[in-house]
Write a structure and sequence with these properties.
Layout (H helix, E strand, L loop, with lengths): L1 H4 L7 H23 L15 H9 L4 H19 L1 H31 L4 H4 L11
Length: 133
């Protein structure tokens, strides 16, 4: 909201240029995907990056979302290669269960925090890398 209402844009010029260049690159990729990578060249579409996933990494400053996504992708890939039929049947249920489990874990963590018995009170930072917890 501030960027729209202030008389001068509070965004560095280099960020504006970078955003315009990346926006242009994503537009070019969509055109290439739909008009050039067709027919026998369609097999190359899978190597094009997902620009939304790349944009999220620039917006969210924490690394644990990206690390969780990479770990999930590797586990999913290994599972699909090793047990393809099992993967086809259970992949959505397992993914939904993990998402629900994360939400329930956050709820339990909030309850413990409100109850005064959370990790910040009684927990230990023994497994935290470089004392980051």
């Amino acid at each position: 909201a501030e960027a729209v209402t202030l008389p001068e844009l509070p965004i560095p010029r280099s960020s504006v240029i970078f955003a315009c260049v990346m926006g242009g690159a994503s537009i070019v990729q969509v055109i290439v995907r739909h008009f050039y990578l067709v027919g026998p060249r369609e097999k190359w579409r899978r190597f094009l990056p997902n620009w939304m996933a790349m944009a999220i990494s620039f917006v969210i400053p924490q690394t644990y979302y990206a690390i969780a996504a990479v770990m999930g992708a590797h586990i999913s890939h290994a599972w699909a290669r090793r047990y393809p039929e099992n993967f086809r049947i259970y992949m959505y249920a397992v993914a939904a269960g993990m998402i629900a489990g994360e939400g329930l874990g956050g709820f339990v963590g909030a309850c413990l925090e409100l109850g005064g018995v959370s990790g910040s009170t009684y927990g230990s930072g023994i497994a935290c890398p470089l004392g980051s917890c």
